[in-house]
Amino acid sequence: MLYGLDRLFEGSGEHEMVIESSALGILEQTIFGDTMPTGERVDPDRVYVLRRESLCY
């Protein structure tokens, strides 16, 4: 398995954030909104889950 992919698929449930909306810019807004004022990630193990067949802009 490629480096890092094992962390993505193993035990990541508590760190998953599902992106439900397909509104314009929602992916970018979600990721930028999930950071501290210092630019650090709120949860360094966060995985963003996109719904299959949904459009993300």
Topology:
Elements: H1 5-9, E1 16-19, H2 26-33, E2 47-50
The overall pLDDT, averaged over residues, is: 75
Rg of Cα set:
13 Å
Shape: flat
Count of DSSP strands:
2
Describe it.
This protein is of the alpha+beta class. It has one domain (5-50). The protein is built from two helices and two strands, in the order αβαβ. The chain has helices spanning 5-9, 26-33, and strands spanning 16-19, 47-50. A two-stranded parallel ribbon has the order 1-2. Helix 2 links the parallel strand 1 (16-19) and strand 2 (47-50). It is flat, with a radius of gyration of 13 Å. The N and C termini lie far apart (30 Å). The relative contact order is 0.26. Mean pLDDT is 75; it is low at 1-11.
Q: What are the defining features of this structure?
A:
57 residues, alpha+beta, two-stranded parallel ribbon, 2 strands, flat
Quick structural overview:
By secondary structure, this protein is of the alpha+beta class. 23% of the residues lie in helices and 14% in strands.
